[in-house]
Amino acid sequence: MTTPSPTASLSSGPVAPPVERAAFLLDFDGTLVDIAPTPASVKLEPGLTDTLLRLRDLCGGALAIVTGRPIEQIDHFLPGIPTAVAGEHGLTLRRSLDGAEEPVTAAPLPRDWIDEAHTLIGRHPDTSVEHKKAGLVLHYRACPEAEEPFRHAIETWLSGQDVFEIHPSKMAWEIRLAGIHKGKAVEALMAQPPFAGRVPFFVGDDVTDRDGISAARALGGMGYLIPDDFPTAHAFRSWLAHYVETA
Ligand SMILES: O=P(O)(O)OC[C@H]1O[C@H](O[C@H]2O[C@H](CO)[C@@H](O)[C@H](O)[C@H]2O)[C@H](O)[C@@H](O)[C@@H]1O
C-alpha cells in the first residue's frame, strides 16, 4: 500500500480530520500491534510510542485505546500513553491518565464454567484461558483443532441464560456480558472532555471493532477496518506516523 495522504479524498484512501479537531479511538491487538502467538508476546514497533505521544499532544489529549483486553494490560504495554482506556470491549472505562476506573457492576462468571474451562485447556495442548472481570477467553491459536470443542463447550454453558454471550475472536472464543460492545465505549468517551466536540476517528481489525466503527461514523466521524481500509496493521501504523509527522 502506498501511504495515503491524510488529506486525500475518501476515494483515494482513508482520511482523518484535521488533528486539532480529531479524537482518536484506536484498537490494540491487530491494529497498534501485530497479532502474536500469545496475548503476552505482542511487541510494540519501534517509534509507535513516540507517534502516539505526539498524536496525544496534537489532538488535545483526545486519544483512547478501545480494546477487548483488561485496562491493566494496556497500562503494561502502553504505560502513561493514551489519555483514556476502554477495556473488555467497553465494559470498563478509565477516562484520564490519573483517574480511576469507573465502577462496574458485573455478574460474576459461574464458578463451574471457570473450572470446566481449565479442565478443557488441560485436554488441548498449548491452549489457554484468559480471565476478565466479567468473562473469559479460550485461546486456541497454537491448537486449531480445539476450536470446535471450545465453541461447543461455551455454547453448552451459555444455553438457557441471557446474561452472557459468546463472541468469536481471532483464534479464540470469548464469553462476555450480553449487550457490551465497543460502540457504547465510543459513545461514552465522546460524551466528555477531551473527546466531546471533536470528530471521532476509530480504527480496528476485528468483529468487535465493527461496533466502534459504526458508532464513530454515526457521530459524524470516520471508522476504518483493517484489512478493508488499511491492508495491514503495519500499513495503518505507517499511515498514522505520516499523519502525525505532517500535521
Ligand atoms: O480489542 P483488541 O485490542 O483487538 O483485543 C482483542 C483480543 O486480543 C487479544 O487476543 C488476540 O490477540 C493475541 C495477541 O496477538 C493473540 O495471541 C490471540 O490469538 C488473539 O485472540 C486478547 O488476548 C483478548 O483479551 C482481546 O479480547
Automatic annotation (TrEMBL):
This is Trehalose 6-phosphate phosphatase. InterPro entries: HAD-like_sf, HAD-SF_hydro_IIB, HAD_sf, OTSB-like, Trehalose_PPase. Coiled coil: none annotated. Its EC number is 3.1.3.12. Removes the phosphate from trehalose 6-phosphate to produce free trehalose. Belongs to the trehalose phosphatase family. Its cofactor is Mg(2+). It catalyses: alpha,alpha-trehalose 6-phosphate + H2O = alpha,alpha-trehalose + phosphate. Keywords: Hydrolase, Magnesium, Metal-binding. Pfam families: Trehalose_PPase. Pathway: Glycan biosynthesis; trehalose biosynthesis.
